[in-house]
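Troubleshooting: if your tokenizer reports a length mismatch, compare against these two reference records.
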Amino acid sequence: MKFSEQWLREWVSPAVDTEQLAARLTMAGLEVDAIDPVAGKFSGVVVAEIIAVQPHPDAEKLQVCQVSDGNSEVQIVCGAANARAGIKIPLATLGAVLPGDFKIKKAKLRGVESFGMLCAEQELGLAEKSDGLMELPADAPLGQDIRDYLNLDDAVIELGLTPNRADCLSLRGIARETAVLSELAFEDKAISAVAATIDDVLPVVVSAAEDCPRYVGRVIRNVDVSTASPLWLQEKLRRCGLRSIDAVVDVTNFILLELGQPMHAFDLDKINGGITVRHAAAGEAVALLDGQSLELREGALLIADEKQPLALAGIMGGEPSSVTDATEHLFLEAAFFAPDKIAGRARSYGLHTDSSHRFERGVDFELPARAIERATALILEICGGEAGPISFVDSQLPAREPILLREKRIEKLLGMALSTSDVESILTGLGMSVSPTEGGWTVIAPSWRFDISIEVDLLEELARVYGYNRLPITPIRDTLTIRTAPESKRGLPLVRQQLVARGYQEAITYSFIDPAMHAALSEGDVGVELLNPISADMSIMRTSLLPGLLKTAMHNAKRQQSRIRLFESGLRFIKCADGMKQIPTVAALLTGRREPESWSENGELVDFFDLKADLESLLSVSSGTISFSAAKYASLHPGQTADVFCNDVRIGRIGALHPSLQSRWDFVNPVYLFEIDLQPILERSVPVFSELSRYPEVRRDLALIVDRQLAASEVLSAVRKSAGENLSDLKLFDIYQGKGIDPERKSLALGLTFRHSSRTLNEEEVGQSVDAVVQTLKEAFGASLRN
């Protein structure tokens, strides 16, 4: 927000200089980003008039002007296209010094003497560029110093406001803050109602009442839009960073800056029937003032007539109903649009305007009528015309709930007590209604403060206005008891350390993801769409950590990083019937070479079992029983995917990225990923000592022929159940398919180790256990021993 210091001092003028004023605003949370003079440093420039103009005898583009400053006439050679007799302009006299320490001296241009210089805005530091001489109003007094005439001894102050301070996006709001910070009374400028002189009213229907709780309009007839805006209006706009367009637009922009109320003026003759505030239908289009035509999404908020959309509500007006030099009759509108309904709509179309900037943050819902009256008075004063009565359409406006502020709470949270007079003067100075109660106050926030709803908001207001630098510094003291950390739990830092030790690097990605990646990887999970996304490709809350890891891997792969190992821990967000579940999750990604490039390595690529080994390492201390089962997912390779179970409850998945997605996202090598719930990893089994047996172990190896599709884990599970209590170890040490075996079957080689804790096992006992295993596998899976 840029504003002129002189304009602010028209509202409230504390007895401090510019630097002190800026410091005061900054310390109160309205950070001053820059202070710039409104004009360059110059002297010796006065108001003058061109009396006569003749072509230069030796140069086509130059003219010889006779210029008067009211006391004398001088000859000046000028090349500006708009130099003509009868206009008043700034004249830099001989000896004048222009910005950049440029001194004006007597000169001769193509043989013709010139005794000064006629100036454009750019040459005085009033603008970055200009097309010709700066033309002054016809009533500008000849000979007056231009700095005095334009009040150029002024500064432009730029505030970097936080999103909650929409009330300070206006001179009125900044003046209110300045007054309370300076302990001055804030006197709001009186705005008188403009009496209607005609009865014309344009019908208004608001069908989207939740989005637009208040709409105010007024018909003004017989205006002269060609009338130039007065110099004071043009200067106020210029110093706030806006250029003058025409009198009507200048007035609406002035109201935007002075009161903070965005307004729009329609050409009344271009409106068919009445005004309707409604939602757009799918495929509807609107032509905007900036020249582009937008195809609207269903639900966009429109200002429309009976035939077509006229404006994108709260964002930008439309070209078909815009005010031009030929406009004679106006329809002025001012509205309150609900911030939560309009937030993000401008960005979704790639737009950002002064209006959308304010409406998204919250505009005073009591302001539209006041703004209409102020704008009407200015338009009638500048352009003439006749005003009709104001029409209102109201629905459910935001409620202002009372807030209890406790006196003891002030002392506890601010570290000091504030006097009753300080509390009441600060809060009332900010426009709040304050009523004393037992032990505190009941406070009602004003209509322009959408960021005040609870007690701590009031405490923040007291602290910043009283002065953060005046609050005492008190060390925090408390009795802290270190709680016992159960051995059966491990923290997330240990999980991170383990993955880092296995060669992974941690990634931290946004919780917002691209809808396209969500669709490719979500496996049917419904994502939560953001109302006000940062950008179109970050508009859905992630239902999986894999999109963020894949995007990070793509970024690295495109920068010649061929060996990538990444992991991330964080929340994923699953939409459900009673709202949204937030599930702590850990995920990892692996692609490229198994080992870093080296003379001793042959460049083998990682495969599914490399990632599975890392996951099993992570789960090895889990207190539950971990198992894997083949699975199918649309985003993963159909033959290299498994679900992960803990105590027969699915906790995640592991697999290779589907080849079609690998190709779409330009990965050269296969990509392997896992994603599991974090909680089972944090629950670990506590080691328990058991005495080692002093007796020898006995090993028996079995080669079994089983069905090719049978999972080895099922065989191992059946062996453990049937081998008896003396089985101390079980290994699968070979899988064979090929010559000598039915193509529909495979050979599994198992190593069974038996040991007793208190004696040596005999051959008969071991043989009985092996026979039991073989018989169980034969009955359960049709297995047979391989010869």
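Reference record two:
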Amino acid sequence: MIGTWHFLLQTPESTIKLQFIIEKMEAYALSVIAEPFPFPIEIHTVTVDGDMLQAKGSSRYVADEPIEFDLTFEDDEFHGRVKLPYQEAFFVQGAKGPGPSLQDMLISELQPYRKHEVRQRNEEEIRQAVEILLAKMSVADKIGQMSQCMSTNISLGSEVASDSPEKLIAAGRVGSVLSAITSRRVFELQKIAVEQSPHGIPLLFNFDVIHGFQTVFPVPLAGSCSWDIAAIREASAIAAKEASASGNTYNHGPMVDITRDPRWGRVVEGAGEDPYLGSLIAKAQVEGLQGDNLFDPETLIACLKHFVAYGAAEAGRDYNTVDISEGTLRNVYLPPFQAGIEAGAGSVMNAFNTYQGVPVAGNRYLLNDVLRKELGFDGVLISDYGSIDEIVAHGNAKDSKEAARKALDATMDIEMVTRSYDQLQELIEEGLVAEKQLNESVRRILTLKYKIGIMDDPFRYVRPEKEKEYHFHTQHLEVSRSLARKSIVLLKNNGVLPLACKAQKIAIIGPFGDSKDLLGPWQWSRFTKETVTLREGMEEKGVSETHLLLEEGCKVEEAVDGGVERAVAAAEQADIVLLALGESSEMSGEAASRLDIHLPKVQQELAEAVVRVGKPTILVLTNGRPLVLDGFARQVDAIVETWFLGSEAGHAIADVLFGDYNPSGKLTMSFPAHSGQVPVYYNHFHTGRPVTESNQGQKFFSRYIDGPNEPLYPFGYGLSYTTFEYSDIQLSHTQMTASETLIASVTVTNTGKVSGEETVQLYIQDLYGRVVRPVKELKGFQKVILAAGEAQDVHFSITEADLEYWNLEKKNEAEPGEFKVYIGSSSCDVKEASFELSPNSNINWQEAEK
């Protein structure tokens, strides 16, 4: 039975293909590829008795639903029973081999539906077409466009009472579908919409493409550590290219929440703690996803999430309360959304939290007044999963009917999956909402559908031939490897890196030494088995099997019998040890908040035993959040933060370990020294009793009595295999007016022995004013590549815009006074200089302060 097997099942709604890959090393292993099943299947147990195989598994997205296989193999055929989530068990009969491609089958089936030379409509043509169609639609038709369903009867979180997607689509009760994923499923459902629904309005197909589609890129937090805006834009464009080839049109991303609390699992999806860098990355992601024109079928509609301040959830607990000032809202959490909207994002998704006691999903001030009126957003606003229903759970509405009214009043256009909006008809009849409110929403939805071309060519995104060409393409993998290398942050190195000799005996110890769990959460690739492990990366570098001593030591959270003893024995035989430790993908992402952000205890115990051997030891981390590493920082010789790097992870890590790539990543979230510091971030305020060098040993100041205030590794920090020296800062002048530009310059010299890339960072501090300002704020950076011994002058332009903040007058303005400028290699390692902004003669600042 070892080998690849398949079967096809034709149902009235779909063609299902299951592919079984059976392997045997020490024991039997089964991998299952299901099409067009929207979630990856993970097998937990495999039992073989003669020609019979029994396996049980699950999908992490429907963890409570069992997946079972009872199969009997005979020569080149097999038969048996299969149980998939939310379906009755069914009988299967299949054969050896990978079987026919659903893509090839679909290519010929699509030919009658293909349209050629479809012209892009201009804005006026779209406006007129929308009004004509809108006039034909009933209230029920309009509610349908504002509703969404899953592509199957599978729900996330609490169960959703709903008809099948086929029935909803045929009746015109949905305008978009979530998680269809494959071109086959998109075609099946789009065909129903076009041929059976009341007005034949095509569907939007939505999906969460967070860090790649089939080619998986580093998780967003990792990618942000590259500080390479162009590379992030390119990765987003490739993700859109691959996802749109499968019929997806609307992305539930990027997540642009500012995140300061590493206990929150969703920090993995964002760009870290800084609003300036976060804004640049948000802009790049929108540009990458949407390209130059949404009519291009290789682009996706970008959806900025989660509007707004979701990253400020109390105690880092997902879906929890947020309580912040409006100044913090506007100066910290709002800027990335503004940048994404200015870049043309077609959609925005609400946050799960409250603001000023009102759930965002029904918060008219945030969604209408701030988002639409102030920021000028005229695109489609979509609820997050179930968040309209959750207005009731928050205690802001009596029932789902009142919740639907509040969401509509807040200008929410689409309800994701749940069915509260079904009650809008009754609300209109009762005079509690107006049909014109529905018209406004449907107008925005239809406009977007015309913009992407599906109103004139419904199947233009269904391109199975492009799926075959684009998915997991060699060039895409090269881009993933490149970004992965740039995302790695070297946190400590006492000279043990780079590895000098491939003839050394290297012990790779830990649960991530040969694990393919390097992709992170929010990925749906069919190519997970192709993920390059650390072991494979080392072997590709020419390290022979005889020189690699591989020991798991323990699971991520569980001990292995004899594992520590075998790991210690391997360390004793080795010249150097790689401790491959970290978090599983399940430990990061949505609903993966952690009380304790240390490595699991079983891994700490493994590490302590191995370190006691006394060999040079390098900690190679796989994780989705900053961790508390105080013990490791004292005990190991080097720490390499690799995050979840994606499809090419092992290659990228080996590139860095052997010095074929000099690490250049810089942290975008601070690593706390202790859990009790959390949240800890660089751009905090002074207090009335700030800790200084002169008073740090005294009691009555803002400090802990049992540890430091400072993080272990601060924002902007990251080492290289070379060293860089900064000159003092030179300012073009020390007084500037609002109309002037001040130039701040430093000379950066590579004082080491190898070429390296440095990210030169500019910070500014407003020393005093009508409201207190942070101790530092990132306002610019430049990446420079310097050969050994080479020096380069780096110049930054500072204008009034760099000094502005949202003030008590509810305006973005710069306030005259004294400022400090800092330039250096991290938020803590900087040179400093001072300048003054002269008052604007047109403003009486003393009067304004009154």
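Descriptive notes for reference record two:
- The first helix runs from residue 102 to 110.
- Residues 283 and 343 are 6 Å apart (CA to CA).
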